[in-house]
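Allow me, if you will, to draw on your knowledge of protein folds for a short while. I have a record of one protein: its chain in single-letter code and its fold written as discrete structure tokens. Kindly check, if you would, that the fold set down in the tokens agrees with what the sequence suggests. Thank you for your consideration; the sequence and its tokens are set out here:
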Amino acid sequence: MSDFTSASTEYMKRQIFKIQEVLIMQNKLFLKAADICELLEVKQTSAYEIIGNLNKELEEQGYLTLRGKVPTKYFVKRFYGVEDTCEIPQEEGKEWFHA
């Protein structure tokens, strides 16, 4: 495996464990801009833009949305490509929150 692939894989593992850590601790059904800032390491303006785009997608599918918040499950699905948070590999000794 090349150094780039190895580094990329390690980065993704760190990101997955990072989102698990935050969501496990907070057991949140919805994420706010501050949560997205922390998870994606983006500025607040970008976080609100992400929330707006995700909420627009949900509205187009017929769902009701809350301004400034996005459902955690939908965020995980769109950013990490998993339907169920249980599909994200678990760090040993940690349980995943089921909403």
Summary: Residues 55 and 65 are 6 Å apart (CA to CA). The beta strands are 30-32, 69-71. The chain is about 60% helix and 5% strand. The two ends are 37 Å apart (CA to CA).
